[in-house]
């Protein structure tokens, strides 16, 4: 399929994609502005990390209940409702600031409310993609979403840093507006959710998604590797912002450095099809771990933006193709009636530990200094790579999944869920296969706001 084909031929996915792109761009603005705002009102590195951690912890605690709700309720209305909740939460920052009452307690409250709404939004959004995208278009949809994410990561931090220099509250006002536009676009999606599986045939356990994942050996190994790298990734964001700020860099310079992650992601998304065809999944993950370890070690020796930026480009470059490999595998394998819970279970494994990354980074920077913190993160990336990804060298199932080729669960026939058409005959306008969940820098399913907290 030609580049951008699904955006031309699938209007519902186009609306979803526009909603996701605008929301993600707004998130990138406030993602950088949150720690800068905490520092500007007198907080330290630990306080800056705590705000991000509060949002991530809230999302982690609500992941499994959110998946169960997404499996049972109208996903589109969940998405619209949570967009409106997040709009109100973000609007409260400029309003309280105008009254002269803005403090760290209020920012923590906003982080918790936004984290809770994002937790409910994510699995519903993932299922919505599967409702409007046929299986044959999965790779194209994932690639379009990757490109949007990368573009937002490229433009957002730089724009957020610049807006912060104009007015520290401005990035949050723009982010709030992005939620309002997102809600309008989502209301215009015409495709309705698929009919749910009958209660008598449904596994209603909260942990059903996690139970299913425990039987997917290769996929589980890849997810555990991603979880470790995501801890390092989440900690690196806070460490980078704080270390640059302490070295005297301004908001625009910090935004420019962070935007280099977007350049790497954009280049990686463009190169993803070529890389996926030539590098087996196991070797790709090993390469990612090695690049992260070496790149973070380089960060320990300099705070010069012209050095940090290019290295950050290289570090992030391989994340998009790895994300497509993992996301496609989950999309093809997961049972339809467990879709929301598999989505949130995947996110829990990949990003749950990452919730402690920012606050740990803040405390380590305060107590050890930036240089030693970078070395500790580099060592963590190396250990995670050796322990988690080496077993994948004996697995090939992640390489065997492709669009239109449903991978079979070991020991089970390739059958459709009750009420579903056969896998080879997807209904028009929706997919017969299933889906993945939100993740950080390594994984990359098409979920809005991936950058807002877990990298």
Number of helices: 17
Rg of Cα set = 21 Å
Gross morphology is globular
**Largest sheet: number of strands, sense, barrel closure:** none
Our measurement of the CA-to-CA distance between the termini, rounded to an integer number of angstroms, reads 29 Å
Compact summary:
This protein is mainly α and 455 residues long. The protein has helices spanning 5-9, 11-40, 45-72, 75-98, 104-132, 138-166, 170-187, 208-213, 217-246, 251-278, 281-299, 305-317, 319-333, 339-351, 357-368, 370-389, 397-400. The longest helix is centred in the N-terminal third of the chain and has 30 residues, at 11-40.
Describe this structure in words.
The protein has 455 residues and is mainly alpha-helical. It has helices at residues 5-9, 11-40, 45-72, 75-98, 104-132, 138-166, 170-187, 208-213, 217-246, 251-278, 281-299, 305-317, 319-333, 339-351, 357-368, 370-389, 397-400. Helix 9 (217-246) runs parallel beside helix 11 (281-299) and helix 9 packs antiparallel against helix 16. It is globular, with a radius of gyration of 21 Å. The two termini are 29 Å apart. The model is unreliable at 400-455 (pLDDT under 50).
């Amino acid at each position: 399929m030609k580049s951008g084909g699904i955006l031309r031929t699938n209007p519902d996915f186009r609306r979803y994609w526009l909603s996701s792109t605008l929301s993600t761009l707004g998130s990138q603005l406030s993602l950088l502005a949150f720690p800068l705002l905490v520092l500007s009102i007198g907080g330290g590195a630990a306080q800056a990390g705590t705000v991000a951690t509060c949002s991530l912890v809230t999302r982690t605690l609500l992941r499994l209940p959110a998946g169960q709700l997404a499996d049972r309720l109208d996903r589109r209305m969940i998405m619209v409702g949570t967009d409106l909740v997040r709009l109100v939460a973000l609007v409260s920052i400029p309003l309280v600031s105008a009254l002269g009452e803005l403090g760290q307690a209020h920012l923590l409250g906003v982080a918790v409310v936004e984290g809770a709404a994002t937790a409910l939004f994510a699995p519903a959004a993932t299922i919505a993609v599967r409702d409007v995208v046929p299986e044959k278009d999965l790779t194209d949809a994932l690639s379009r979403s990757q490109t949007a994410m990368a573009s937002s990561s490229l433009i957002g931090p730089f724009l957020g840093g610049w807006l912060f220099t104009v007015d520290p509250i401005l990035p949050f006002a723009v982010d709030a507006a992005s939620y309002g536009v997102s809600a309008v676009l989502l209301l215009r999606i015409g495709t309705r959710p698929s009919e749910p599986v009958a209660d008598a045939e449904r596994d209603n356990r909260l942990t059903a998604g996690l139970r299913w994942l425990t039987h997917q050996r290769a996929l589980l190994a890849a997810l555990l590797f991603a979880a470790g790298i995501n801890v390092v990734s989440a900690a690196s964001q806070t460490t980078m912002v704080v270390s640059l700020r302490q070295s005297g860099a301004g908001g625009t310079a910090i935004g420019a450095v962070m935007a280099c992650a977007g350049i790497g992601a954009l280049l990686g998304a463009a190169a993803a099809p070529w890389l996926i065809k030539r590098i087996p999944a196991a070797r790709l993950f090993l390469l990612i771990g090695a690049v992260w370890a070496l790149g973070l070690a380089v960060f320990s020796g300099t705070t010069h933006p012209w050095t940090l930026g290019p290295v950050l480009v290289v570090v992030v470059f391989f994340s998009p193709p790895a994300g497509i490999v993992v996301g496609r595998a989950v999309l093809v394998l997961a049972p339809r009636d467990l879709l929301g819970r598999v989505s949130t279970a995947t996110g829990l494994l990949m990003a749950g530990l990452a919730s402690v990354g920012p606050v740990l980074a803040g405390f380590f920077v305060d107590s050890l200094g930036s240089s030693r913190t970078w070395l500790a993160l580099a060592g963590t990336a190396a250990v995670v790579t050796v322990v988690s990804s080496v077993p994948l060298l004996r697995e090939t199932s992640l390489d065997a999944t492709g669009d239109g080729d449903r991978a079979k669960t070991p020991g089970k026939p390739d059958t459709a869920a009750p009420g579903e058409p056969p896998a080879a005959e997807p209904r028009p306008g929706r997919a017969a296969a299933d889906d993945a969940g939100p993740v950080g820098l390594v994984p990359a399913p098409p979920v809005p706001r991936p950058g807002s907290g877990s990298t």
